[in-house]
Amino acid sequence: MNSKAIAWATFDWANSAFPTVVSTFVIAAYFSQGIAPDPATGQAQWGWMQTIAAVCIALLSPILGALADNGGRRRAMLAACTLVTAIFTALVWFAKPDPSWTLYALACVCVATIAFEIGTVFYNAMLPEVTTPEHLGRVSGLAWGLGYAGGLACLGVALVLLVQPNPSWFGLDRNASEHVRATAVLVGLWTVVFAWPVLLFVPDPPGARLPVGQAVAACIAETNRLVRGLPQRPDMLRFLVARLFYTDGLNTLFAFGAIYAAGVHGMGMEDILLFGIALNVTAGLGAAGFGLVEDRVGSKRTVLVALVSMILLGAALLLADSVGWFWALAMALGIFMGPAQAASRTLMAQMAPEGQCASHFGLFALSGRITGFMGPAALAAVTAMSGSQALGMATVLVFLALGAAILATVQPVRG
Q: How far apart are CA 323 and CA 88, in angstroms?
C-alpha cells in the first residue's frame, strides 16, 4: 500500500478502540453489571440509549456528508468528531457504580457514539482517494483487520494495566470500579494519540472551498437531490435498504454481545476482556483474509457469505448451554464480522459517482442508522417482555436475514 493508504488504514487502528472497549466489551458490561439495577434492565436501558443515538446519526450524517463534499472541510470535520468522541468517552470515568449515575453514563456514551459514527462518514469517503479502484477491497479489508488489531491491543493494555492487577496500579480503587472506569480514559487517549496520520497525510480533495453559508445551502440541496433520485437508481436503493437491515443487526450484536455474555453465562469483567481479545483476533484475521480475496470474488458475494455464516452460527450460539460452546461458536462467528462491514464499505465506494463520495457515504451512514433504533428497540422490547436475554438477542438474526435477502437482488453498478 502507498503512504496515503497506510495513513488512512491507521485511523481504523485508532478508531476501533471505542466500539471494542466502550460499545461492546467493557463499558457496556460495566453499565449493565455495575450501574444498572440488574442486567436485564441494563440491557434495555442501553438499548434505548443506542436508539436515541441512532436517530441523531440518521438525521445528521447525510447533511454533514454533503457539507464535506461541497465545503472541502472533510479533514477538519473528521478531526472535530474524533476529538468529541475522545472527550466524552473519557468523561465516563466519573460514572460511579450506582444507579444514580445511569443518566450521566448513558449521556456520555450517547454523545461519543454520535460523534464516532458521523466521523466514519468522512473517513470512509476518503477510501477512493487513497488507492486505485482495483484495490479498494484489499485496502478496506486490511484496514478493517488493522482496526480489529487496534481494538485487540487496546483491550490487552486495559487488561494488563488496569483490570487485572490486584491491588490495582495507579492507586485505583477496585471497590469503586475505578480499574474498569479507567478503561474509558484509556480509550480517549488511545484515539487522540493514534488518529493523527490520516489528518496529516490524506488531504482534502482539490477544488474550490465554498463559504460555510453557501456550503450548507448546497449540502441541503445535494442531500435532497440524492434522496429524491434514489427511486431512479433501484440497485443503489436496494443496497441501502439491505444495509439498513443487516447493519441494524450487526450494530445490535456489537452493542449487546458483552452484556449477553455477562448476564447469561456469568462472565466477569476479566473474562469478558479475555473474550474480547480472542474475538478480535478471529475478527481481524477474517477481515484481513477476506480483504485479500474480495477484489477477486466481489464485494457483494463477500457480504452475503459473511451474513449467511453469521446467521447460522448466531442461531447455534443462542442455543449454547455452556461457556465452552459459547466461546467456540463466538470465535467462529467473529471471522465473518469484519468482512460484512469492510466489503459493504467497498461496495459503496464502487457504486458512488465520482466527486460525490462523502455525500453517498452520508447516505451509507443514514442507511445504517435511520432505523438504527429498530434493532436495539426490538431487543429491548423482547427482553423486557420475556425477561430473557437470549430471546432478545434472537431479534438480531431476523435483521441479518432480511438484509441478506434484499442484498441478493442487487446488481452493483456505479451511479
A: 34
* Angle subtended at Cα 344 by Cα 282 and Cα 299, rounded to the nearest 5 degrees: 90
Q: Give the pLDDT confidence score for residue 72 in this predicted structure.
A: 59
User: Where residue 363 sits, what CATH number does that domain have?
Assistant: 1.20.1250.20
Distance CA 64, CA 374 (A): 23
- Cell 464502487 sits at which residue? 350
354-57-401 Cα angle (round to 5): 80
Predicted confidence at residue 169, as pLDDT, reads 80
pTM greater than 0.90:
no
| Cell of residue 403, nine digits | 438484509
- Per-residue pLDDT tens digits for 253-279: 776 777 777 777 777 777 777 777 777
Domain total of the chain: 1
The cell for 290 is 477476506
Q: Output the pLDDT for position 166.
A: 78
Q: 370 in a domain, yes or no?
A: yes
Going by C-beta distance under 8 Å and a sequence separation of 6 or more, which residues neighbour residue 178?
Answer: 168, 172
DSSP H or E stretch at residue 308: helix 299-319
Does 197 map to a domain? yes
Regions of the chain short of the pLDDT cut 70? 1, 65-72, 204-216, 218-220, 222-223, 255, 355-359, 361-362, 365-373, 413-415
CA separation for the pair 137, 131 (Å, rounded): 10
Rounded alpha-carbon distances, angstroms, from residue 161 to 179, 280, 336: 9, 19, 30
Q: Using a CB cutoff of 8 Å and minimum separation of 24, what contacts does 274-279 make?
A: 274/159, 275/25, 275/327, 275/330, 276/20, 276/21, 276/24, 276/25, 276/26, 276/151, 276/155, 277/152, 277/155, 277/156, 277/159, 278/327, 278/331, 279/330, 279/331, 279/334
Confirm if 221 and 229 have CB atoms less than 8 A apart.
no
**Domain range enclosing 276:** 3-201+211-407
Residue 19 near residue 152, CB atoms below 8 Å: no
- The per-residue pLDDT for 403 is 92
Per-residue pLDDT, 43: 75
The answer to whether residue 412 sits within a structural domain is no
- Identify the pLDDT of residue 77: 85
Residue 373 lies in a domain: yes
- Residue 97: how many other CB atoms lie within 10 Å: 18
pLDDT digits (tens, 9 = 90+) for 136-162: 777 877 787 788 788 888 988 988 888
Residue carrying the nine cell digits 488511545: 190
